[in-house]
């Protein structure tokens, strides 16, 4: 995810915002194996340096700015490590048209929806910090894991099980054919659709 600020980013504010936002982001994560989950718990409970890092590069003098940014981005992406951290890297590129802030994360850490949440939270927190306000985030929503567990508990709950007999009776009743305007007496063969082959 790349953000652009024509007047530049204040890196001290950026670091302040990311420190506030980082743990909030981790709470949205969905982990897929027990090994990764155990590692993530150790990482997120440790120092923020294990969770994310902030870097800065001046690319204003580069002959090909896009190529330089792409090279840096690919290198930082390769350095991400789910087990030992960091889980996220934030890179500020200083260019002639302003600053470009790249936020790099592993795809197992943040999905598309969480990425939107990250962007909204970052913008809100940055504005609060720039205006000297106290940094306040909205309450954390439930993770997919919590939602799935809640659905499983509901599926095994007594209120839902009490409906089982009712639905079993409905299912055992014979189906009534739907009324039709015209009864079909013979099956008609449909013409073959146009076919073609790619060579």
Automatic annotation (TrEMBL):
SUPFAM superfamilies referenced in this protein's UniProt entry, alphabetically: CoA-dependent acyltransferases
Superkingdom as given in the UniProt entry: Bacteria
UniProt xrefs under InterPro entries: CAT-like_dom_sf (IPR023213), Condensation_dom (IPR001242)
Recorded coiled-coil stretches: none
GO terms of biological process kind: lipid biosynthetic process
Pfam families xref list: Condensation
Domain Condensation: 58-189
GO MF: catalytic activity
PANTHER family xref list: ENZYME, PUTATIVE (JCVI)-RELATED (PTHR45398:SF1), PTHR45398
Name the record gives this protein: Condensation domain-containing protein
